[in-house]
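Predict structure. Chain length: 215.
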Amino acid sequence: MFVRMAGCPLNCHWCDTTYALSMDSGTKYSLDEVKTLISEGLHPNTYKVNFTGGEPLAQHEAVIELARFVREEKGLRTYLESACHDAPRFEKVLPYIDICKIEFKLRDSKAVGDRHYSNLLKNELQCLGLAVGNGKITYIKVIVTNSSNLKEFKDLVHKVFQLVKPAEIAGFIIQPSNSFDEPSLERLLGFYDAVYPLYDQVRIVPQLHKSIGAR
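Prediction complete.
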């Protein structure tokens, strides 16, 4: 089950959920109303609840309350998908999360201005360290376009594996942008080859929700 939170402070130019960027987008619910929606929407084979966005850390206190509810009252795993732009908020949410997907942004994402990029990367790396250090099931995701810089990507990969051991993460996902500056197969394989010598559980995974028409 996906719980999509409204609001995101980043500005990725290939964003596929622009309808969820504003804090007043979507429908406003109380926490109790969301808990009811979650309870009513569960199926017998539901095994985890994903908190995504937008950017879920934009509403980190709500994520904490809902994740606690999902774990303690529904007995399900919780999954956080985040760009991890705010390590202090991530650290507060982490005790209530079982699985983390940390999305690293390359410069060509334009998530933040060049002047702020080093701080974004610092927070992302801090969140990775926190997730692994607290024994969470941790995935890494990087969205690449045809304009993404391979050297920058390689530098990021080396920073990641200087910080964590390959055995400490559950997967490294390279996701091609969809309908915007899409990378060629040759470019994708170049990114793949930058990771594989250091970590063999690397996958190129397209945006499957686009293929099946889900929001």
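Summary: The longest helix spans residues 114-133.
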